[in-house]
Sequence to fold (107 residues):
Amino acid sequence: MTKEQRLDLDLEAYSLDSVKRSAYRFSDQFAFDLVVEGRVARCTLIFPDAVSAEAIETSVVAFRKELLDQDLRQAIRSETANVRNVILAHAFSQTRLVSHEPVQDDQ
Fold:
């Protein structure tokens, strides 16, 4: 037997990627079922039967906090992608990993 907690998440507020990343972080506490209907992610958190109602509520609250954290991390990744790419390009340009010779066409 299992216990389930359903959450409907607005995909205007959270990205689907953030929902999946958050669910993965809690895979040791509950199984996760996800159905996307339009702009709503219908999430079912599936707990073992032995888990108490208090433990379920604690996990749901922690999941919601993780969801916000993951969504903000994704926003920061997007906002800083160009700077990160410039830093990486500069770092690799200082090594011998990148050849400065022009690439010849295969014939």
Summary: The chain has one domain: 2-93. Strands lie at 2-10, 31-37, 40-48. The mean pLDDT is 90. The helical segments are 16-25, 53-93.
